Structure formats: structure tokens, C-alpha cells
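User: I've been going back and forth on whether these two constructs are worth ordering. Before I decide, could you fold them both?

Assistant: Sure. I'll take them in the order you sent them. The first construct and its C-alpha cells:
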Amino acid sequence: MEKVLIVGGGPAGMMAAIIAARNGCKVHLFERNEKCGKKLYITGKGRCNLTNATSVEGLLDKVITNNKFLYSAFYTLDSYLLIDFFENIGLRTKIERGNRVFPISDKSSDVIKVLVKEMEKLGVIIHYNSRVKSVKEVNKEIKGIILENNTQFDGDKVIIATGGLSYASTGSTGDGYKFAKNLNHTIEETHPSLVPLEIKEQWVKELQGLSLKNVEIKIKSGDKTVYSDFGEMLFTHFGVSGPLIISASRFMIPYKKDKLVLSIDLKPSLSIDKLDSRILIDFEKYNRKQFKNALDDLLPRKLIPIIIKLSGINEDKKVDQISKQERLKLVNLMKNLTCHITKTRDYKEAIITYGGINTKEINPVTMESKKINGLYFVGEVLDLDALTGGYNLQIAFSTGYLAGLAVGEAN
């Protein structure tokens, strides 16, 4: 019977443990925290967006880095098979807007409960509060692990599922990168990804808490458009966040040293001419009012003072006295509200880590290292990342599943 040691009790580690145990392995899982799934607990704002109910091609399309590496993983465990897996171990699920899959209870804790219960049912031995210090290897063969307290565990296979660097408070502090580097693996440079942005302009901070829906954003480096999309964003005390911004942050990484500019189209459904006509209608409606009282039909109340200030039009000016030139300046401002990005927030707020262990050194069919026999890497520790919507968790579960199958084949 193969003795399998799994380092990390997140989604990839728990999945690997369950599948390895189902395939007859004696499995020990080592979790540095007092419980499994600490990061999983906070995903999807505590609701846990398990996956996205789409085709394999749909999954691959949302993986930005090394998506071809995941062909075997996704075809072995696609999103529908993952849903079936959870339903079969007692978790009822539902599909929401954008094909996002959640537990029907809206509680990430229920996801963790069924995974832990299944591990215990299968006889997986879970070692809590057990941080692994190093991985033992002799002549490129895995021999086991050593804990921080110098306790040693021998094993035939070791699966590293330690996550990346995002949300370090949950235990993701880059231990897997250290293990990999010590065993002669290449680590691609890491960055926080899927993360809010800090903005230079002070007026942005004045809009803290304001959510804008149905806007279009563009992020530019000089004349090059780095990212553009339509959707929802949020102003914060340091800058901007929300779904649009979080996704944009991933595409900014190659341009982080550039001066990046964010422009917001507040009325993307209206051309410049149509927006001008719309403003004329509102100005006719409020022709006896001051400018500051004539924008309520067009903009959120919190945004109006900022737009007035940036337009340069006197807020007390009567609407019927506003010139065509001033009005066109207002139109262009609403179509191109511009601010300057100073930096992304750090790993504490990043949903995932960009970068990680070079996938060319890993067998994509088994997740086994090509350099060390019996050593496997799964989940966020690898140089794989996807957009939001359940895709990153699908990567974790699918790669964990493959590794679990692979170590079980030796029995």
C-alpha cells in the first residue's frame, strides 16, 4: 500500500487526499492551521464559488497562464463532474448568474465540512497545526517530509498543495515555492493578481463606497490598451475595486512598471452625440436651475460634485447659460473619466498569485515532477492562473484530482 503524504489542506490538497484514499493509498494530510480550508472559507465572499458550469473549452478560455497544461486535468475532472463529486458527498449546489456554482446554503463552511467528512470516512489521517519544514529526497527519489518540530514522516509519494502567496493570514506564505526551489525546480516570478488598484487622484477617495454598474473601463499604457471591458466597479478609500478592476489587474502585470491610466466611460451605451442630446434634454428640463441641480437624472448623487469640479463649470451657473463648449467638455468627461494607477494592492488582498512553479517541469497528465520521482505539485503553487468566476478553484480541484489518481495507480 502506497503511503502518500499531502502538504496543505486547501481545495487541491483535500481533493488529492480523497482520490488517493479512494484508490487504496494510506494518506496523511499535513495542515499548518488548526483546520482545513482556511482560504476556501473566505472565497466568493464566504459563499465559495466552486466552479463555473461551462464546457472544458469554456474553462480553458478563462485560464490566462499555461492553459494548455490543464487539458488532461480539465478533461479528467470538468466542472460538471466536479458538481457531481460534491453532490455525491453530500453538498447540494446551485448555478447562478454567469454560470457560477455555489453551495445551495451559500456557506463555504459547508464545502469544507463535506470534504473533511469524506477524508475522515476514507481513513485519511489529518495532522493539524503541523507545518512542514522540508521534503526529504535521496537520489531524485522522494523519501518523506520533516516538520518544523523536526518530526520525520517517511512516505512513498509527496503531494505539495501549499497554495501561493495570496491571503498569507490563511497560511499561504510560499512554503511550496521554497520546497520546489530546494529540489531544483524553477519558480516563475510571482505577483499579486486579481487585486484592487490604488489611484493617485484624491477625488477617487471621496467616492468611497460608490458602486458603478454598466460602465466600460480601459487601462492604457501610452497608446496601448492593456485591458478593456464592461461591467461593475467600486470606489474605495485607496482607489478602485469590483469585478471589472479585479480582472483588469491580471492583465496589468506585464505593464506594472509603466505609467498606467484608467479611463471610465460612465455611459457606454450612448455615443458622444447621443449623450450630448440626452444632456440637452435634461438641461431643457432643468433650464431654470443651477448646474449642480441639473444632473440628478444622469449620475449617482455622490458622483455629481466630482463631475462638476472636474468639468470646470461653475456649480451655481444657470443651466441655460452653459455654453456649447462647456457642455461638450462635460460629455467628454462622462465618456472618459480618467485617473492614474499608482500600484496594485498587495498579496493580503489578492485573490490569487500570478507565477509559481514552472509547468514545463511537471507532467500535465499526473502532476508529478519531471525532476524528482514521487513528488507532485497541485493548485496555486503552480504557474497557473485564471479569471474570477470559479475557474481558479476548478484548477485546484482538477489538479488535485489528477495527482490523487496518479499516486493511486501504484496500488
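The second construct, handled the same way:
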Amino acid sequence: MISVIKADGKREFEFLKSIREKTLAPGANVDDVVKNILADVKQNGDKAVSKYGKKFDGTDEIKKYENKHFQEAFTSLDDKFKEVLLKAVSRITEFHTLQLQSPIKHEEAGRNLGQLIRPLGSVGLYVPGGTAAYPSSVLMNAIPAKIAGVKEIVIVTPPTKDGVNKDVLAAAFVADVDALYAVGGAQAIGALAYGTETIPKVDKIVGPGNIFVATAKKMVFGECDIDMIAGPSEITIVADKDANPKFVAADLLSQAEHDKLASSILLTDSETLANKVKEELEKQTAKLERKDIMLASLKDCGGIIICQTIEECVKIANYIAPEHLELMTNKPEELLELVDHAGSVFLGEYTPEAVGDYLAGTNHVLPTGGSARFFSPLSVDSFIKKIQYASYSRSMLSSDADNIINFATREGLTAHANAVRVRINK
């Protein structure tokens, strides 16, 4: 079961470092395998994609789904889930529309500067498949792209023996996706990055996947853009003595069920709460379906750390820079001001991380593995680019000429200096 330790300024960081090393450790020969797959796809297109589809997913067909298939899937859903999907679309749209940026324009005599906002032309969304289906990932990736103005949005997702999950297809319908290709793994990333006879080359690839998908995204960066390198899911909970141990345990388990490498950490200033949460973990795990995964996750990548103060808990949380951070304390809004590094923060005992996964409206595509120190959640910003412009009058150029010529000459770029000099006869 989960480990419980007391913070002493050193032990807790060694403990957390050991967990991080486990969750970030790549599988054997992953880089070599992915490198070879990408090279094959780049050179041989659909032929290579089909070959690896047969090897890994049991089919060499590159099946394409379009709007009519999406609509059929949506129509086949029960009314309750249709309502859930549409409510999620509304909430996600509402929040992400607030992220839209305006162009910048600065004018003064003889010198006008500005910045244009332009959407990416095309985006590929990777939606995990296999043993589970994630229609929520379709919404979280596609809706911000649509709001940004992306012209072409396509999905790749691993096929199953029964085709693509109808909930995923229905989500593609309500999110207004252009096409979906039943292709998964590193070969799908290669197809999006390089383009094949069937699958279009895109400007950016977004969405989570396994270690092969994450490695492939890392390797194709530069050929196209990517959102981030996603690792196993993680949650850190900061809870005080008044927190409900049932709620805390339930939320730790909500991440532990994802993967044996998922990380679930509780930081608290109450030894009593720590012990109660440990008891609750044992009780609740026994009643849940993915028991074996959760037990392995808690044992190898989970932990309860008892600190002297809640402020110390937040300091350690900033060190972790978790994907999901819950502040289950009496005054979570005050603690929020101390948070520097986290993907998404959930305030109070009635805001479990699960609300962010599905219906709150915030995005659930978040930085993992400590990368919240420098990465942000997926947003409308992820699907735009910025273009600068400048306009000088002759008199303004004359005014700045000596300084520009001086600067260029100092750097040994005499042609730069000359480009100014010829215009103002200096």
C-alpha cells in the first residue's frame, strides 16, 4: 500500500525524486523502435502505416471516418449521454472563448508596430484508444482549435476489432471535426507529421498517448509543432486537518486507476488525516474495478507526506509541479496565491479533479512530469501563431539610422548597416 513519510527537508525530496524517475523512465529500446517507424512512414507512407497497423493493432486498413459516420454515431447514443456531450461542449466553449486574443497595434509619428493573430492551418489530434475510449479528449483538443479558427482538424486513434468507439465518433460530430483515421501508435504520429497518400500532413499534433506516441511526438517536433510531451497522469492533494479523508482517498484513486505509473501524492500537516486517508484507500480500492492497477500505482508511485505546515505543503507541491493540484483546505483561495507550478488547480472539497476531466470547462490536456514549470494547459493559444509587423517613415529611419548602423557594425554585419545607409545617403 501507499508509503507515509514525515518531511524533514531532505527525505521527502529524495522520495519524490525516486517516484519521478520511475514515471519518466522510458521502456527498453523505445527510441530505436520509434525512430525506425518514423523513418519508414516518412519514406513509404501508407504502406508503412498499414504494415505497423497489422503488426500492432491487427489490421492493415487505414479506415477513414467522416461527418456522416460521426452523425450516425451521435444519433445512436442514448438521450442522456447526448445531453452530457452537448453540455460539455457548451462549458468548454464558454471558457475557451474567453482566451481569444486581440491584435496589438502601436502607433507614433513615423513608426507603426503591430502583432497579428492567425490560426494554424491544420491540426492533428491523437486520441488514445485500445482498452479504453476517451470522447472527452476529442472535446478538449478539438474545441479550442475550432475557436482559434483552425481550418482543418483531423483525429487519429487506434482501431479495435469493432472499429472506432461510437462515443469517440459522436464527440467528433459535436466538436465539428473534419475527419478521423483509425490509426494509432508512432506510425499515426509519423503520418500526421510527414503526410501520406491518405492522411494529411498537419501543422501541429496534440493529445496524449503511450510512451511510443510521446516519443514520436518529441522526434517529429520541428517537422511540425506539438503541444507537450505527456507522461503518466498525476495528482497532488494539499489537505489540512479538516479535510474529509473519504474525499481525499477517492481523488487519489481517481488518478491511480489510470496507469500503474500514475502518481498520487497527498501533502498534509495532519498525521491523523494521513492515517485516515490510508485506511480509506484500502477500503475504497477493494470496491473498485481497476483494483490491481490502483494498488500497483499507489505502492510504486504514490505517497503521503506529513509536513509541519500547510505552507510547507504548497512549497513541496510547487517542487512537484503536478498535472492536477487539489487544495482541500479551509481557505483554498488564499493558498492559490502561493501556487507557482501546476497544470490545473481544483479548489475546495467539492471540486474533485474529475470535474475538470469532463464538465467544468477548463482543459484536461495538461503538462505532466514536472513540466508545469514551463508548459501550460492546452488552450486556444495552442492553436494560434503571431505575426509581427513594423512600418517606418523616411524621417523616422533617418532619426534611427546612426544607431542602427552603429549596432550592425558592432556585430560585423556591414550589409545590414548598408541597407540603412543606402536609404538615407549616409
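Notes on the second construct follow. The mean pLDDT is 95. The longest helix spans residues 79-97.
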